[in-house]
Every structure is written in C-alpha cells, then in structure tokens.
Amino acid sequence: MAGAPGPRGPIKFLSEEEKKNTPKVTKELMLRILSYLRPYWLQLLLVLAAIVLSATLGLLPSIITGRVVDEALVGKDMKLLVRLLLMAFVTLAASQVISVLESYINAWISQRIIFDMKNQMYDHLQHMPHSFFSTEKQGDIITRMNTDISGVSSVISGTLSSIVSNIATVVTTLVALFSMSWKLAIVGIFVIPLLILPTRSVGRTRWQLLKESQAKTDEMNQLINETLSVSGSLLVKLFTREQREYERFLAVNEEVTRLALKEQRSGKWFRVVMGMFTQVGPLLIYFAGGWLIITKTDPTLTVGTITASVALINRLYRPVESLLNIQVDFTRSLALFTRIFDYFDREIAIVSPPHGRKASMEESCEIRFEHVKFSYIPEKPLLLDVNFTIPTGKMYAIVGPSGSGKSTLVNLIPRLYDVTGGAVSINGINVKSYDLTFLRSNIGVVTQETYLFNGTIRDNLLYARENATQAELEAACRIANIHDFIMHQPDGYDTEVGNRGLKLSGGEKQRLSIARVVLKDPRILILDEATSALDSISENAIQDALEAIMKGRTNIVIAHRLSTILKADSILVVKDGVIAEQGTHDELLARGGVYRELYETQFRQVLDYEAGHAESGKEEISEENL
Questions:
Q1: What pLDDT, in 10s, does the model give residues 209-265?
Q2: pLDDT digits (tens, 9 = 90+) for 577-604
Q3: Cβ contacts of residue 573 below 8 Å, gap of 6+?
Q4: Reduced to 3 states, what is the DSSP secondary structure of residue 429?
C-alpha cells in the first residue's frame, strides 16, 4: 500500500507485519543475492556506465539554458541561440537513447536471472521428498515459483537500478550546482527538508487512514460474501434476518464511506499545499540570486546561472524523495529473496547414494521389512515394529483399519518416504543403497487416486516408456481392458483426456493408469486399492489380466474387496503400528482376531452389497426375456 504523495511521488511505509518479519541483513545473505548477478557482471557494468552517462548528459540541457540566457539572448546572437538549442536537443536525445539502452540491458539481466532461478527452483522441487508436497500448500509452491521469482525482476530493474540512478542524479546535480554557484546551491538544498518532512508526517496519517479503510472494506466484503451466497441468503430468509443484515451492511458501508472521504480530503489539500511549496525553492533561488546581482554582492553571478540553478534544483526533488524510500524498498526486496531461499534451503532428504547399487531384479525380487519404524510427526509414530518377508513372485495383500498405515507401508519400498527405524530391503540390499532411479524404475504403483496429465491418451501412456511402439501401447491397453474404449473414440489414442483426466470416468482413468504401469513392466507391482474406482463388471473384466501381469513379479495389493484378497498367497493385517496377523483367508478367519473383525464389519457388507446387485441384475434380465 502506498503512502501519501510527495512533491513527485509516494512516500512509502512498512506495514506492522513487514516490520515484524524484516529479514536480518547478513553478509552471507547479501553475497548469496549477489551470486545471481555474478554471471552478468559485464552487462551490469554497462548498465552502471549508462546510468552515470545518462545522469551526466541530463545536466547539459539545464546548463545550456544558462548559456542561452547569458550569451545568446543578452548578446542577441541568433546563430549561437540556434546552436545552443541544437546542442540541448542532441544531449537530451542522447540521454534518452542511453536510458532506453540501459533499460533494455537491465530487463535482459533481470529476465536471465529469473530464468536461472526458476530452473534452479523447479529442479530443486522435483527432488524434494513426497512429504514436502503432502504438507506444503500447492498455492504456496506456485506462488514461490512464479510470483516471488518473477518479483525479482522489479528488484533488479526497479529497486537496484533506481537506487544507482537516483544516487548518480543527486551527485552529478550537486556537483553542477556547487560548481556554478555554491551560494545558490545551499539555498536550493535548504528547501528540500521543508518539503520532505511534512510529506512524511502527512503520509503516515494517510497510511493509517488507508489501513482503517481497508479493514472496513474487508469487513464489508465478508458480509456480502456471507449473506449473498446461495447458502447464506437461504439462512437469512429462513430466520427472517433481512432487516438486521441490512442494518449491519448500512453501518459498515457508512464507516467505509466516511474513512474514504477523510482520506481523499487530506490528500487533496496536501497536494495543493505541496504544489505551492515546490515552487518555494525556485522562488528563493530567484530571490537570493536577484539580491546577489542587484546588490553586486557576487559580481560573477549571472541571470543564466540563476536560470540553470532553478532547472537543476528541480532535478533533485524526485531522486531525493526516492532515496528516502530505500529502506522500504530494500526491506521488501530482502523479504522476497528470503522467501525464495527458504525453499532452496529445504533439505532434499531422499537422495540417490553415490555409486548406488543396480543389482538385477530379473531372477529374484524378495522384499523384506525388518523392525521398520516410521512417523510423519516424531511424537506420533505410525509404524512401530513391522516385520515380514514377501518371496519372489508371490502376491501379498495388506488389510487393516482406516489410518493404520497401509499406504505408508508400501510407499517405503520406492522410497517415497524413508524409514525412521529398521530397514526395507530387496534381495538383501537396503533400498537406501540402490540407485534411486534404478530402484523406482523396477517398481510399478497404481494408486487409488489416478492422476493423468492434460494431454492425449498416448501422451499419458508414453510417460511410462517414451520409446514404446504403437503395438506395445495397444498390448498394454488390451491387458487393462481399455483398448476397445480407446478405439471407439473419434481420435483413438490421440484423444484428449482433459485436465487431470476430467473427460474420462473414474474407471476409465484407473484402467488407463493400469495400462501405463503394464507398459512400464516393473519387477515389483504395488496396487494401492487399484480397482476401487471400477464397478463390478469392469473389475471382473481386468482381474484375469491383472493376475496374468502379476506372474513372475513380486506383488503387494492393498484392497478392500474380498475377491482380491482371497487370491493372495498371504494376507498381512496391519494394526497399531505392527503386523498384527499374517496368514491365508481361512487361517485368519479361524483365529477370530483382527482379520475376522474386519471381515465381519467391512468385507461381509461388500459381499452382501455385490450379491444384492447381482440378484437385481438377474431379475432385470428375466423381465426383459419375458
């Protein structure tokens, strides 16, 4: 939020929140920021040179004005007048051309730095652990990637160049003023505090009024959103609160209007007064200069010098005022960088070890959990002491109450998370010792929530294997029982799936994700409730196919459907952070423990539901036959 306008622009203030969260300026932080400028040091030197040259050339039209008065006009020399005016025009044009060149180079530098930072940020975030994305808000990630990094452009091309440009303008102008007449220079400089100090005082008042007005506007918007929404308006009508809500709105709206008028009145009168005060400096210079000439106190002083001094003193107002905002601009710039560096400093906890193992999993692929512990929050352990072994080529089902850690347990295998105790190994090798890319390339996962990129069916399938042929795509889709559906689409495999697969049903998306994993051809297959979005007909259609692709692989299935669990070689029952029970369906039922309780409360209901639908289907068929 800007402050009250000064002679040329706004005086800025930090909000209370900005003051509270002001970054600590350290040598390390400044060097880190400057490290992004280092690759473009040559271009930066050109920008600095252009700024200084432009500021110097900008003085010449004012100085030439003095010569126009003293030499051309007083001397009545028309040729000299034309020559001096041409010189003023050329220097002015040259100054503008250099400014444009400086702006172009500046913009190029800032865009290249944004390019570098976005590449660095995207690469960094790509390697962040899965826990980062499950806890961090997606909106915050996008804001850091786009808004914050793009804001660096205003820091480089705005704040940094503005500081240098303003300093160059002030220094060159002061040098010119004092070289022409130190007496007039002191008079002109004396006026500046008289303009700036009242500006900052009134600016704080307007800042406070603007904050109060914004708070009341927010209150009014909240009231509108609550009472004029579908649900809110219904509630108002049902409780006959129309008059009461109108009175609340009237009171808030009246306060918003009062504050807005007060802020506008203070601003307008202030601008009138400041507009008059900005002329005080030139008037004082004219008075002082006239007195010096008339009283012959300074015989060397000329009318041209007075005229040039007035023009130069006007050049000081804007840059001096801008330099008063350095603290605010500098603090906000640092805050922007610290937000970006906060992400860069997040640890990439799950990394591929140097010289990671790439032991073949073709012949053997045994998975073993040994005293595995895991917790998202240290104070709340989820897995306490998990022990089991899945032999090569076997299918194990994992069941358990909701929130018992079934999905977390299987996510430890591809190292989406790392254990906090114990070890997960494949063929006797700790998964942390494997090359991370090699490990994950040998593991296929079909999750409950299927994700598809916005593109074609072909694009989403090729995400598993970029060089797959059309025949391989079709073979994988036939296994997942999705090929016929695809071929019935007007564009076949080039059919657009929409954002997140919006144009496909849940079952179609899930079968497409199964086809994608089939195309990957992993040695370990993890199905995390992979058939949950399929109806009974679709599920039955691909069960045989799933069984076919499971052959020769080590398989882990998390499922709520008994039909899937019954086909498992062994069932692992997870409860209270441990494997509470392990065995076949009949063995576990006979024990009368946790599994039997799950069977009675979950699986039996599903069976009864499916049986009821099957009977209903038969009745419909019989009626049609009749």
A1: 666 776 787 788 888 888 887 778 888 888 888 899 899 899 988 888 888 787 667
A2: 899 999 998 898 888 888 888 888 766 6
A3: 399, 400, 579, 580, 581, 582, 588, 593, 594, 595, 598
A4: strand
Q: Going by C-beta distance under 8 Å and a sequence separation of 6 or more, which residues neighbour residue 369?
A: 386, 387, 388, 389, 409, 412, 422, 423, 424
In the block, residue with structure tokens 């020769």 = 552
Q: What value does the mean pLDDT take over residues 497-508?
A: 80
> What residues are paired with 536 via a beta bridge?
none
pTM: 0.69
Q: What length does the chain have?
A: 626
Token pair, residue 31, equals: 């060097």
Residues 6+ apart with CB under 8 A from 550: 395, 525
Residue 497 near residue 460, CB atoms below 8 Å:
yes
Share of the chain above pLDDT 90, in %: 15
* Residue 119 confidence (pLDDT) above 80: yes
Tokens of 98: 């250099």
Whole-angstrom CA distances from 497 to 282, 458, 461, 504, 512 are: 70, 10, 12, 6, 11
In angstroms, rounded to a whole number, what is the distance separating the alpha carbons of residues 166 and 324? Answer: 11
C-alpha separations of 168 from 17, 120, 144, 569 in Å: 33, 34, 33, 80
**Both ends of the chain: CA-CA distance in Å?**
77
Q: What is the pLDDT of residues 180-207, one digit of tens each?
A: 888 888 887 877 776 665 555 555 666 6
Q: Do domains 364-442+523-583 and 446-521 have the same CATH topology?
A: yes
Q: Which of 359, 368, 433 is nearest to 394 (CA)?
A: 368
Helices within 72-181 (DSSP H only) = 78-126, 130-135, 138-142, 149-154, 161-180
- Check residue 157 and report its DSSP letter: I
CA–CA gap between residue 552 and residue 362 (Å, rounded): 9
Question: Could you tell me which CATH class the domain 364-442+523-583 is placed in?
Answer: alpha beta
- Residue 436 burial by CB count (10 A; 0-12/13-18/19+): exposed, middle or buried? middle
Q: How many helices (H) and strands (E) does the chain have?
A: 25, 10
The Cα 206–Cα 200 span in angstroms is 10
- Helix orientation angle between 78-126 and 326-344, rounded to the nearest 10 degrees: 30
* 383-390 β-sheet, strand order: 383-390, 367-374, 421-426, 429-430
> Do the beta carbons of residue 512 and residue 504 sit within 8 Å?
yes
- Give the Å distances, CA to CA, from 61 to 8, 72, 84, 373: 21, 15, 9, 77
Domain boundaries, the chain: 23-181+301-344, 364-442+523-583, 446-521
Burial bucket for residue 333 (CB in 10 Å: 0-12, 13-18, 19+) = buried
Q: Write out the two tokens for 619.
A: 């009745």
3-state secondary structure of 359: coil
Domain topology for 446-521: Rossmann fold (3.40.50)
What is the Rg, in whole angstroms, of the alpha carbon atoms belonging to the chain? 38
Which residues on neighbouring strands pair with residue 443, listed in sequence order? 524
Answer whether 593's CB lies under 8 Å from 417's CB: no
CATH of domain 23-181+301-344: 1.20.1560.10
